[in-house]
Amino acid sequence: MKYFGLIWHNIWRKKIRTSLTILSILVAFLLFALLSALGYAFKYGEESADAERLIVIDKVSLINLLPIAYQNQIASIAGVHSATHATWFGGYYQDPKNQFGQFPVDPHEYFAMYPEFKMPEEQFDAWVKNRTGAVVGKDIADAFGWQVGDRIPIQSTIWTAKSGEKTWEFDIEGIFANEEPRGNTSMLLFHYDYFDEARAFGQGLVGWYIVRVDAGADPVQVQNAIDAEFENSRNQTESAPEAQFAAAFAKQYGNIALIVSLVLGAVFFTLLLVSGNTMSQSVRERISELAVLKTLGFSDRAVLGIVLSESVLIMLMGGLLGVGIGVIAVRGVAASAGAFLPGFHFSPTAMAMSLLLMVGAGVVAGIFPALNAMRLSIIDALARA
Amino acid sequence: MAEVLARLEGVSRTYQKGKEKVEVLHNLDLQIPTGDFVAIMGPSGSGKTTLLNLLGGLDRPTSGTIHVGGAELTAMSNSQLSHWRSTNIGFIFQFYNLLPVLTAQKNVELPLLLTSFSSKERAERAAIALDIVGLADRARHYPRELSGGQEQRVAIARAIVSDPSLLLCDEPTGDLDRETADEILKLMQILNREHGKTIVMVTHDAQAAQYANRTLHCDKGTLEAREAA
User: Fold this and answer.
1) Are A275 and A27 contacting, i.e. CB atoms less than 8 angstroms apart?
2) Deepest of A8, A86, A145, B59, by most Cβ within 10 A of its Cβ?
3) Alpha-carbon gap, residue A35 to A53, rounded angstroms
4) A207-239: pLDDT as tens digits
5) CATH number of the domain at B35-58+86-227, please?
6) Within 13 Å, how many C-alpha atoms sit on residue B40's CB side?
């Protein structure tokens, strides 16, 4: 800390150059914050998955539906605690850009399968009693300003009603929360019985099964047993832990993690070149000053530490500013569009990673100029000056 | 007879220039008593600055031994030499070599960063050093805001702030006009006579050398004593 004043004044020796370097670092870490949040959103399903839940889909494709009759067969397999189903409704509210998840489900079974969903009992009872009733998650209700008692139209891109209508109307009977931190509540749930009766096609079919494994049972054995049960059926199944299913689902959009890594890799490589060049120039310009410091008694290590600290401090200033602005931007996006991108969030892990990156990039950018400063010969440097 | 502060015995310094070896100092013996003010004169390339660098522990002799203030410099490691310089030697350069990003006060405080003094103590000591050189009112000025003479005074304050016993001055008035040079030399005389600093000054200027107690002439790697005028 004794050297902080010296380090600070050295950093601002060329104000414009340092400001531009800090700006480039700021942009890099702003991108890091935004892309990390995006990557987290796509990994969100995996993060929030329950280890005791399995997802059973058609072996050929998730698009193919499975018979409702499978539910009882699955429930009777050893190691299965309970099973329920859901189906992709594929609808939007008022405008095609307002897409979110809507699922016809069995209310009792579904809420038993997802105990993290919480809502007032009277709202749940009202939903159970109303065949055209629906419950919505808090995020989506907030996004559209929905309240209990509202009647809302949802336009399906897949399911036509027997009346020929693609617009389905639901009464909002309840609003549920998710007690998991940042848990997803961007969805609408409605009665499968009503859906199955009213749809023009696909009766008796569901999108996928959700299976809870008995406590202590081996999930791998259970998923193998489920798939073996339907091996010779018309619709063969593929079972997987919820996290694996969520990861595979996210990959439909491409390998987001790889894309994020490649973009960030390119950004940080450029950043290292820019800051490394700044530090090299800075050291070259003050060879004689560094020689004077050594003459006064500053050790080789102290000179190495001073130059490295300058590099790390520049990186921290730009990085913290970038991450700070990034966090504000991520919160802004999450507040306005989080219902459509659940999990868009700058996680503590990403924060720790960004700090590591700042220090690491500072060390890498500064190490060679710092080593040159450390190895500087006092006699030669003073003679050159 | 005053106590000997610095003693060089059989010191030679050879540099490699390409394939050729150049001997800058040859088998030199020298004793500098405590409280002495020695001027070293001689033509360019005669080895004056090399001698100064050896005395300050900035360079090592090819052969021979150097003792300063009871410490054998030739037996010390680089880090030991760094630490030794910080407490025993004050350097004054021809071109002042102040750090342009720091105020006069902060430049003077630099050597004290290597001590255990608190920031308040550092500031107090730097203020005293600036007062001794007559620049207490310029403490907050940056080097670019000072004249050459004032810059050299700040450099002198930096050299004395950690109270070293030996001041090594390499052409301290070489970049100054006559009048300012005389002021700086008088200040050095005061430091020598009133504050007991031992001074070794390399100079080309015969008038500057007159301020010293004695003058040594350096030529072809050897020293020859001459009486001060």
Assistant:
1) no
2) A86
3) 29
4) 999 999 998 889 899 999 999 999 999 899 999
5) 3.40.50.300
6) 27
Largest CA distance in chain B: 53
Handedness of CA A338, A339, A344, A348 (dihedral sign): positive
Q: What is the pLDDT of residues A124-140, one digit of tens each?
A: 999 999 999 999 999 89
Confidence label for A2 from pLDDT (cuts 50, 70 and 90): confident
Q: What angle do the packed helices B78-88 and A300-337 form, to 10 degrees?
A: 100
A350: left (phi over 0), alpha (psi -120 to 50) or beta: alpha
* DSSP sequence for B17-56: ETTEEEEEEEEEEEEEETT-EEEEE--TTSSHHHHHHHHT
Tell me the residues of A at the B interface, defined by beta carbons under 8 Å apart. Answer: 2-3, 5-6, 9-10, 12-13, 288-289, 292-302, 378-379, 382, 385
Instruction: Count the neighbouring beta carbons within 10 Å of the beta carbon of residue B1.
Output: 4
Comparing alpha-carbon positions, the chain A residue that sits nearest to B81 is A297
Map residue B167 onto helix, strand or coil: strand
**CB-CB neighbors (< 8 A) of A17 in chain B:** none
What is the percent of chain B with per-residue pLDDT over 90, rounded to a whole number? 80
- DSSP, collapsed to helix, strand or coil, labels residue B90 as strand
Here the ipTM equals 0.92
> Of A224, A155, B146, nearest to B157 (Cα)?
B146
Which has the closest alpha carbon to B122: A301, A289, A9, A3?
Answer: A3
